[in-house]
User: Fold these one by one.
Assistant:
Number 1:
Amino acid sequence: MKNLQILVGILFLGALFTMCTKDEEGPLIDVRADFKPFLESYIQEAESRGVKADFSETGLSIQFRPVEDEESAGVCFLGQFRIEIDRSDWNGMAPPEKEGLIFHELGHCHLDRSHLNTLLPNGEWKSRMRGDPFIDDRPVTVNNSGRRRDYYVDEIFNTNTPVPDWVNITQSYDFINDTQKHVIYEKIPDSISFKERLFLPSGANWEIELEINNFETEEFIGISWGQDNNEKSWRMGYSRENQFIITSGQDQFGTIFFKDDVDELINDEYNELTVRQIDNVCYVFINQNFIYWFDYNRQVIGTFQSIDRGSIDHFRNIRVSELML
Ligand SMILES: [Zn+2]
């Protein structure tokens, strides 16, 4: 109780202090250059939805946090229009994630929103406002890339935004048959690892298919396409605990984390992973079951390699094919 009184005292003092500075100097808008494009985008998106986003009366500060904090990538001091961002988290983010973080913090400061941890029918986050306290070990990443973005922006400004159509996007494994596959890379025997630089014809649609096991690993077994730290790269695979994970962009971990669902799809032996790149969309299958799609600008040149831990065979029947659709 005493602590509460002190806290209320501090908050009251804080409010007084804010009022004083405002009276004497006027509200201060102090936004570091790194954050300005995302603030401008926020203002534009707000106003295009009829929401006023004018900080001239309230002031606004967005700065890097002076001390590194492992707890959160950003924090908004409620009622103070002051946002602090963790520098090392920021540096590891792809632009859609940076935008998402700034929009989230402004959702607190500007829209007075609190955290909302409900899910869409397909298991993805309902809102950019997901946050502490998280109920389970679901990754915090919101995939707001490509056509998912509009929904998440709408939802920031209107919590009653209808469920987006894209939750129903799917593809049947049989949509493509073997006669439509022109194999351009093949490695059939059991392998500890592999690495191949691939060049596909410009505009090609393509498929990666292989079998993976996660024997004797404490970590993660999977594959990657593209270069590390490149926004146009992705990594996917599964952990010892049979959690399937897709990461894309730079260090955008946890775009997918189907722990509950994937347990039923993955067995203790080799599992088949199929990734199809068709018309700037990536479709992912495990053992011929569709599990996820994401918008991905088609890249036809890239390094395709294993992400492996340990010294035993994890991969077999690796094929990369151009799809003749
Ligand atoms: Zn938050």
Number 2:
Amino acid sequence: MHRIIRTKQSGQILGSLLCLIGFAALVAVFWKTWPNVSGSANVFSQLWSEILVGQINLASIVTLRLVYLTVVGTVLLILGVVVLAFSRQIFYVSSASTQLQCPYCRNQWKARRGMGWAECPYCRKFIHPQTVKKV
Ligand SMILES: [Zn+2]
């Protein structure tokens, strides 16, 4: 038995993108609040109050409250990790050969692979072999 990890590229891109945006949002929050927080005695409570009251300007057009940015950033980051995790499909493939059967002539033969189209070695038809059993 050996393990094959197949990744869905679209899922990988989407997941990475979500992680990146979420991470960027959280970095922006820290970057905005850190100058006020770093000198504080209680960093975490100061950080939290800064996040609750703080705002951030994006190109002087959009004003975002830091608390929303923090929530959205966290959600996107988690979503990105979930998408990345689900876009990895792990297959356990038997390295032993598989017994295949032709759906037309019912002859059987062994092959390394059980999936996909193949030419029947007996009737020379182009068929989708049926898996009989693992040998
Ligand atoms: Zn056949």
